[in-house]
Amino acid sequence: MSNGKLTMQNEEISVWNISEAMERASRLDDEIKARTAEIIEPLQAQLDELKEQIAAAVLEAGETLKTQYGRAEYVRGGERATWDSKALEGYAVAHPEILKFKTVRVMEPSARIKFEAKPDALSRSDSA
């Protein structure tokens, strides 16, 4: 951009034709998103299904499982407590009547899946 003008495919864009440029840019953005969705959606569905299966295996094992490709972490369940922002936990020791502000949720176990790049995959991409 120089002197208030942009160049787009050998055309100068000024404040006088910015609407046309924005329309073209918007159409291109929509087309990119549509094409990306066509490619990503089927792959994402496969990935989501595999992640569900991996998470089920981790929950059944009850422990974190690690491979050369990454790790599937077991997150144990339990209770989580939250407090009203005005209540102070230290104050509750001396004044148990404020415990009515405490909310307890039971958390189900869950799994986290993290992928790690294999060293040989990195060297192959570097040489490509």
Could you please describe the fold and organization of this structure?
The structure is a single chain. By secondary structure, the chain is of the alpha+beta class. The chain has two domains: 1-61; 63-128, no CATH class. It is built from three helices and seven strands, in the order E-E-H-E-E-E-H-E-E-H. Strands 3-4-7 form a three-stranded antiparallel sheet, with helices on one face. Strands 1-2 form a two-stranded antiparallel sheet. A hairpin with a 2-residue loop joins strand 1 and strand 2 (11-13). The longest helix is centred in the N-terminal third of the chain and has 44 residues, at 18-61. The radius of gyration is 27 Å and the shape is flat. The two termini are 34 Å apart. 2% of the residues are buried. The model is unreliable at 121-128 (pLDDT under 50).
SSE topology:
Layout: E1 6-8, E2 11-13, H1 18-61, E3 65-67, E4 70-75, E5 78-82, H2 89-94, E6 103-107, E7 110-115, H3 119-127
Antiparallel strand pairs: 1-2, 3-4, 4-7, 5-6
Total number of beta strands: 7
Query: What are the segments in which pLDDT stays under 50 over at least 5 consecutive residues?
Result: 121-128
Amino- and carboxy-terminal Cα gap: 34 Å
**How many DSSP H or I helices?**
3
Mean pLDDT: 80
Order of helices and strands: EEHEEEHEEH
Quickly give the structural class.
alpha+beta
Instruction: Label the overall shape.
Output: flat
- Indicate the proportion of strand residues: 15-25%
How would you characterize the largest beta sheet?
3 strands, antiparallel
Biggest sheet: strand arrangement: 3-4-7
Q: Helix share of residues?
A: 40-55%
Radius of gyration: 27 Å
Total domains:
2
